[in-house]
Design goal:
Layout (H helix, E strand, L loop, with lengths): L4 E13 L7 E6 L4 E5 L2 H7 L4 E8 L4 E7 L9 H20 L1
Antiparallel strand pairs: 1-2, 1-4, 2-3, 4-5
Length: 101
Amino acid sequence: MVLPHLEVVHGLIEAIDPGVSKAPEIQLALREGKVLTVTATAEQVDQASHLREVSAMVVMGPTPRLVWIREQSVEVPVPPAEERDAHTLRKWSELLRRLAQ
């Protein structure tokens, strides 16, 4: 059994199903030659409809689920480590405080 895990995939938008009678889905033709079908939100389906070559983060599991999708050539700025640490501490400080007790 494979546990769910995050994976970044690269490929082409193969098909989009807006999910009238079920969850919306996007089919990605991966570089390895496989086609991966992922569930998505309506907003992600709309975003994907404007894209062709994509990079996407997917929760791989029994039913792969899209986390984010973007044009493959788009660089995403990464905040400095200090900024990321500060954000993490702001978000999780109460939980960390309780766990330390």
